[in-house]
Amino acid sequence: MTYHTTRRRILGFTSCLALMGSLMATTGNSQASPTPQRAFTDDSASQSAQYAPLPSNQTFWDALALEPRDAWSRLAEAFEWQEDVDQARVQHWIDHYRQSPRNITEITERARPWLAWITERVEERGLPGEIALIPFIESSFDPTARSHRGAAGLWQFMPGTGHALGLRRGGGYDGRLDVARSTHAALDYIEMQAEQWYEGDIELSLAAYNAGAGTVNNARSAALSRGQTASYWDLKLPRETMAYVPKLIAISAIIAEPEHYDVELPRIEATPAIAEVPVTRPLKLDEAAHLAGISRTELAELNPGLLGHQADPRHVERLLVPADSAERLVARLSSGTSRRAVAADGDDVYVVRRGDSLSGIASRHAVALTDLARWNGIERLDALQPGQQLTLSGS
């Protein structure tokens, strides 16, 4: 069966060709996961309708209540490839994952912050739910994962592929490690390749995600010459790519029917635990954490792409924050008093005034000019702007 995408936006034909040409030059998105592949479990992949007694003032439909979903059951509802579970290659990987039950808890706990949010992004695009599990086989859901071949992040982007997809590197930032940005890029890439080369076939696009479109296209040509349909299951591909889609379906099969496979997943809420907040000005993690009412450590863990611990809008479009802190952070960032309020909390933040110079600020606060510039990621000493916030310590 061929699975097709429904695009939510129109890509310009010229820009699409240019980008695909760049991506064709790469050797594939990732060649090896940095950690062993593992099995996964689920505690409530199915759900049933519950019917409450009908008070005299209620209708049948008023009384109908669905059992609350968790993230795994929500994900399972979006699966589209379960008819391929009987494939021999899929069964091989189901057996493989079931032999490593002690790895299940580690992987699924690591997925806790990200799973529901990524599932929601996949749902928005109308993609098969299995796509949300790619980080399981790519990085074991470790957003800081790096392979020995140079791939990085949840989605294991190689440097060239990441660059072609707009995942910036430099200035204390690596977009491949940015969970939000890399997730959007990965889904864009999968949809774009499916439409550009494979008439919407997502399985073929996933093969290209792993091995490169050139490799897959050559394998398709060979399959057609043999009189085959040139679907993913007909292709002769590198060993890792031959296993790529079967691994994904095997994991999804276990999640769809956890009791059948005698496995169990930790409960994760179906509602995303994180939210994106636009970055509209240079923002130190210390300040952002203060405004959001969370710890700096928690914010840093949600934003591993910020290698320099500062979000600069020239490089970083959005921060990920706990969902219940997002509204507060947005409100305080947009408030004209938020900066003064932060400065008033202590002496470690200074709000630049008109006429200030970096050397003058350093002198008044008894810190070295070079330290002050380094702590704030300032390269041009004459580039201060009124209202800009400077940290006065390296902590």
Automatic annotation (TrEMBL):
Biological process annotations from GO: peptidoglycan metabolic process
Chain residue ranges for the region called Disordered: 27-51
Alphabetized InterPro entries for the sequence: LysM, LysM_dom_sf, Lysozyme-like_dom_sf, Transglyc_AS, Transglycosylase_SLT_dom_1
Pfam families: LysM, SLT
GO CC annotations on file: membrane
Keywords from the UniProt entry: Lyase, Signal
Keyword Translocase among UniProt keywords: no
Residues of the LysM domain: 348-392
Catalytic activity, EC: 4.2.2.-
Signal sequence bounds: 1-32
Domain of life of the native organism: Bacteria
A GO term for molecular function: peptidoglycan lytic transglycosylase activity
Protein family according to the UniProt entry: Belongs to the transglycosylase Slt family.
Listed name of the protein: Membrane-bound lytic murein transglycosylase D
Biological source species: Halomonas lysinitropha
Taxonomic path: Bacteria, Pseudomonadati, Pseudomonadota, Gammaproteobacteria, Oceanospirillales
